[in-house]
Amino acid sequence: MIAGQVAEIDSAITGMLGRVLEEKTNDLLRWNGTFSQRWLLLLNCYPLAENAAEVEGTLRRLIRENTGPAGFDGIFWSGYPNRTLIPISLSEPL
Fold first, then answer.
1. pLDDT tens digit string along 27-67?
2. The whole model's pTM is what?
3. Cα gap 63→78, rounded to integer Å
4. How is the chain classified by DSSP, letter by letter?
5. What ranges do the domains of the chain cover?
């Protein structure tokens, strides 16, 4: 078990979400069809990324800083250990 500082956890979560947003946003080009909204499902297995409010803040900050991964209207987040899907709308004003 690794015991990291809070800054290291925040950095790991930011890096994880940044990579997945970039990768999945690039995949949007392959989506066929006309959709009124595009939502991404993220199933979290990282036990230290359990606070949905912190995840939402990180997602909004990443999109503000880099408009490239702003192709989704929202994200369904599944925390750990609670697997309830939490909708995080990204189409609301940042």
1. 888 888 888 898 988 887 777 777 788 888 888 888 888 76
2. 0.73
3. 20
4. -----HHHHHHHHHHHHHHHHHHHHHHGGG--S--S--EEEEE---TT---HHHHHHHHHHHHHH-STT---SEEEEE-SS---EEEEESSS--
5. 6-89
